[in-house]
Structure formats: C-alpha cells, structure tokens
Amino acid sequence: MILLVHGDREYLRAPGGELHTDLGIVDIPEDVEPGQVLESHLGDEFVVREPRGPDLFNHFERTGAPMMPRDVGLVVGHTGAAMGDRVLDAGTGTGVLSAYLGRLGAEVTTYERDAEFADVARENMELAGVADRVDVRTGDVTDHLEELSGFDLLTLDTENAPEVVERAPDLLVSGGFVAVYSPFVENSRASVEAAREAELTDIETFETIQRQMDFGERGSRPSTAGVGHTAYLTFARYE
C-alpha cells in the first residue's frame, strides 16, 4: 500500500490501481516509489509516501475508541515490548495496540468477544501488514486461560481485567509484564488489588493526559480543547 498526499488530504491505495477524487483520476503505476509525484487527469499533483504505522492506523476501520499513540508509547516504554516477544492481548477492539506490537516484531495472540469486531480487526491487521504475527481470536480470554502460558507480556483492555491479572503467574514467563488499560479508575484499582493478591511486583498506575500546544501571535499556551484524558494504565511484573 502507498499514500497519495495532496495538501492535507491522504489516500491509501494499492500500486497498480486508480484514485478517483474531485481533483481528478490518478493512475498508480505498479512500480510506484515513495517520493514520486503523480498527476491527476485534471493536472493536480499527488506526492507518493510510504505509509508508516500512524498512517495505516488512521485508515483502520474503527469499532470503538482506539488506544491513542500516547498510551501505546507508555505500554511499549514501560514493558520493553520488542521483537520476538510473545504477547497475550484481550479486548482487541480496533486492534491498534496489537498492530503496533506486531510491527515491532512481537507475536500477538489477541481475544475479542464481539465476532464482528474481531472480523474488522483481522482486516486491520492485513492492512497493517502484520496478519502473520497477530492472531485475532473470537472469544473471551477468561474461557481459555487454562490453555495459555509462556507469554512475555499481558495487555488487557477489558472489564474483567482483574480476573485475568489474578492468573498472571500462570500466563507469564519470569520477568514478564502486565499492562492494564482502563478509562475508569475503579477498574484500575481492582487490577492493582488483583496484582497484589497474585504477588506481582513493580505495581504502578498512571493517568495519561496530553495537551497540544497552541502557538499564536498573542503568545503560546496549552490548547483549551478537551481535557486530554484517555485512560489509566496499570503495570505490574511477575518475578
């Protein structure tokens, strides 16, 4: 897949196809390369760009509010997720976290209870080029805990996350991490209590808040749009 960019417009297309817009029709060569400029039949120019993760994720079909880059960054930074890691994820949703981890080179098994959401997530993994590393399964992870083990990282975005955290010692290798994402502090507190009961270590919770900066003629200040809260992230480790 490649991106065709015209101003603030972006179009994701496959080489060898066509782009139809109000700016005209663009024929995309099979051997198109990043940096090329393609012209529509009306004379408008489109710059070819190789899509990176954020570009692909912006074109995902969404089944709900996806995890934001700020949260993905915290998960990766606090757990050290890397190539070759085995990850057990629950609450796939749109699949943003699974796709990011897959593009890092991790092998991800992710569970989504809603069958339609799971189908969309599989399509998104194809778009991100990680379908061979991300196994999207339909079902509730709690129904399969007995058959799962040997993971380096456990990531949870579900209401029943505390129930899974209790089983972390059976699911993780020594030194493995748990990361729980929740928009509600009650779920985070329950996850912390479950981590303590499971005798996990390095337990900590953060609220992720990000404010965009506005730079204008009168001065510079944080944007007043929105409060910037996305979720609470709880981390813990199995020794």
TrEMBL record:
InterPro entries: rRNA_Ade_Mease_Trfase_CS (IPR020596), SAM-dependent_MTases_sf (IPR029063), TRM61_C (IPR049470), tRNA_MeTrfase_Gcd14 (IPR014816). SUPFAM superfamilies: S-adenosyl-L-methionine-dependent methyltransferases. It comes from the Archaea. Residues 70-214 form the tRNA (adenine(58)-N(1))-methyltransferase catalytic subunit TRM61 C-terminal domain. GO terms for cellular component: tRNA (m1A) methyltransferase complex. It holds the Pfam family GCD14. Keywords: Methyltransferase, S-adenosyl-L-methionine, Transferase, tRNA processing. GO terms for biological process: tRNA methylation. GO terms for molecular function: rRNA (adenine-N6,N6-)-dimethyltransferase activity; tRNA (adenine(58)-N1)-methyltransferase activity. This is tRNA (Adenine57-N1/adenine58-N1)-methyltransferase. It comes from Halogranum amylolyticum.
